[in-house]
Amino acid sequence: MIRTTCPRCDETDYKKNGKTHQGKQNYRCRRCGREFIQELKREPIAPEQQALVKKLLLERISLRGICRVVGVSLDWLLTVLVSLYGELPDPLNVSLEHTNNPIIIQRLEVETDELLSVVGNKKNIHWLGLAMDIKTQQVIAFYRGDRSKRSARKLWKARPAAYQQNAVFYPDQYEAYRGIIPAIQHRSVSNLFRRTNHIERLNCTLRQRISRLVRATLSFSKKLANHIGAIHYFSCHYNLTLAAKFAGQNAGN
Question: Nearest to residue 202, comparing CAs of 235, 156, 241, 227?
Answer without folding.
Answer: 235
